[in-house]
Design a protein that fits this description.
Length: 292
């Protein structure tokens, strides 16, 4: 098994994550607000991405935009490393010759690698979402990654750390199943056109187009994932144990109470997050391949 795709994938993921994290925080806040079924998130505090960024900065400070960065980097060190490494491993396992790659094979490899890597890294994603979604007094209680981990484990058990694992794996399979194959597809298409070679411009255009497709395909899954992860389950509570019983229940409840457009809440920050993330990631990854 080749080690370089794992290492380069992890390093490129960490670089992209740090560079675009404030946009991800904004996206999460927009996605979890306005829930009729969750009174703690029922208020519409933010009118859009720009308003959310300025309000978070004014009310909570600059560091609030990086709330959850520790588990996010930990997640990328595990998820990003495994996703890219497994993607290339599965592709070569299906066919050792890169010239025989097809879009369908790459989609299968992308979905499988995304789902497996995301399932393993789910606890770090739960921590990230909880820390990002918290505001005001709740933010102060969630600012410590270690404290939040202990709190979730104590109050919700191991299941709490794997809350939302199904929608997270579904989203990861969708993202990886679109982003990775489409990047390879656009890259080969641009190179075969004869106008562009294996250059930084090719990598930029390929990752830009792949990011747009990825956001369109996965934003509804991202909304469901964020909502599933943000809800708390308390062992000793007289109130209902949960708001959404499953990702499908979350889908139906959101559709019934908020309408279909709710699944595209945070679309602009999602693209502004995934687009630049994708560009930074693939350019960094391609440069690492050349350097090492």
């Amino acid at each position: 098994m080749a080690v370089k795709p794992f290492v380069f994938g992890g390093l490129a993921s960490l670089t992209a994550e740090f560079g675009t994290f404030p946009i991800d925080t904004t996206k999460t806040r927009l996605q979890v607000q306005g829930q009729v079924m969750d009174l703690s998130c029922s208020q519409l505090r933010y009118r859009g991405m720009v308003h959310a960024i300025f309000r978070i900065y004014q009310e909570e400070g600059l560091l609030a935009l990086y709330s959850g960065i520790a588990p996010a980097l930990l997640r990328q060190a595990s998820y990003g490393t495994l996703k890219i490494g497994l993607y290339h491993y599965i592709k070569r396992a299906m066919d050792p010759d890169p010239q025989n790659e097809t879009l369908l094979k790459n989609v299968v490899a992308g979905m499988a690698s995304g789902a497996m890597a995301s399932s393993i890294a789910n606890p770090t994603d739960v921590l990230k979402v909880r820390m990002q979604a918290a505001s005001s007094e709740a933010y102060a209680a969630r600012r410590s990654c270690v404290h939040l981990f202990s709190h979730i484990y104590r109050e919700e058990g191991v299941r709490g750390l794997y809350r939302g694992v199904v929608p997270t794996a579904q989203r990861a399979a969708g993202v990886a199943g679109v982003l990775l194959p489409s990047y390879d597809f656009f890259k080969r298409l641009l190179q075969d056109s004869g106008h562009l070679g294996d250059t930084t411009l090719t990598h930029f255009l390929s990752s830009f187009l792949a990011g747009l497709l990825g956001t369109m395909a996965t934003n509804p899954l991202d909304v469901i994932k964020s909502r599933m992860m943000n809800q708390s389950v308390l062992k000793k509570s007289s109130t209902p144990a949960h708001i959404y019983t499953s990702s499908f229940n979350c889908f139906l409840t959101t559709l019934r109470t908020e309408g279909p457009l709710a699944f595209y809440k945070g679309f602009i920050p999602s693209y502004l997050r995934l687009g630049p993330w994708n560009i930074i990631f693939f350019i960094t990854y391609e440069k690492l391949k050349v350097l090492f």
